[in-house]
Amino acid sequence: MSVRILALALGNFAVATGAYVIAGMLSDIASHTDVTVSLAGQLVTVYALTYALAAPVLSTLFGHCDRRRLLAAALVLCAAGNLLTALAPGFEALLAARVVTAIGAATFTPLAVVTAADLVAPHRRGSAVALVVTGSTLATVLGVPAGVALAGPVGPQGVYAAIALLGLAAMATLPALPRTDPLPRIPLRARFGVLRGATVPAVLGVSLLAAVSDFAVYTFVVPVLSDLGSPDPGELSALLVVYGLAGALGNVASGWATDRIGSDATMLGALVLLAAGLFALPFTGGAVVPTVAALALWGLGGWGVLPAVQAKLIDAAPAAAGSAVALNAAVMWLGMGAGGIVGGGVIEAAGTGTLAVVGGVIAVAALAPLAVAARATRRGAPAGLAAAAGWAAAPVADAGTGTGVVFATDPVPTTDATGPSVPTQEGYAPVREEVGEAAPSPVGGPAVAVGEARMAADV
Description:
Keywords: Cell membrane, Membrane, Transmembrane, Transmembrane helix. By secondary structure, the protein is mainly alpha-helical. It has helices spanning 3-20, 26-33, 37-40, 42-62, 67-87, 91-118, 125-170, 188-191, 199-218, 221-229, 233-261, 263-280, 288-316, 321-350, 355-365, 367-378, and strands spanning 391-393, 411-413, 437-439, 448-450. The protein has a two-stranded antiparallel ribbon with strand order 1-2. It has a two-stranded antiparallel ribbon with strand order 3-4. The longest helix is centred in the first third of the chain and has 46 residues, at 125-170.
């Protein structure tokens, strides 16, 4: 297991804890700010929508920066946003603080995912991505239950002050990452070239609907569970730990399954589990065993979708993997924001009792774009290529990606007078290279040194 991948996972844990813990404290926040629970839930929506809009823009503005410095800056911004959340005097100030935190997260998480994939051999990418995402699942295992337990004695303010310190502590692990040279800028228009073809848009559709399904319910998970059986805070924390542990297991299992049976089959299994858990939840009657079983299925499926989606995107668009992953991060958080809106609307219209069923229906709907993606893959439909927008591929060149990461197969600006060329999978040099080896540029530029930043490390 690579120390580098663990460093990225720890940073992602700090970022995700700040994002998810709010779901465990909605009732306390609503009471403190004198708003309804459904309105307090829109703090999640504002965070998610900010993330979705900021991710592609920030990657364009800062994609040329050294990744280690960019990761550190992102963690500082997240910590500042969480501290502002702790100090916010009212609901409007809370909204502004969540925007600041989301901007930091939108910089860190896509960058961490693609960096992890870039540090391992292609056949290990599923496991590497899964390990980074495990930081998020551990946030649900530890962060949200801890928020529920601590919100009483220290309040939401104390919880977010502690999360700010956690983010700063995560920075201490970043020196384990390799240094990189400044990267060339890639225009925002070129990044969206990855959407050409059927596969990538369809996979993004799966990601969107899965996120809407999951977060329509998870945003309001405490009111939902409370209305099922009115458990005390200790019981709520225990139930949330069950969900988080199942999510962690689902995430790891998804990476393992993706490496062995493929991403399409893994996504299918995860969506089935997600829908089954959500459909079952309202019918548990608050009984412990059925509720635990429903939460376990929900966690396994909900957190099992993402690693398979990320691996599918990287395989489907090797010439623009960073751009594809950055777009997926934006789409996923857009889905989370939409989930908060859907969940709040359902609660206002019909109460919490029907919310999980609505989430299950949306999970079933995600099977449609999955079928499109699988069919496009079988037919060999071309994935979206940034080269179609005027960018050419260079074997193992230091190129800008969608998240400011050096990725072995991302596009670089072409200087060839004959015009842009369309890259092919066969045209790329392997990721695993020896330190100091140089790779010649196919576009007439100088050879690019392949140093520590280009080496793959075992996970």
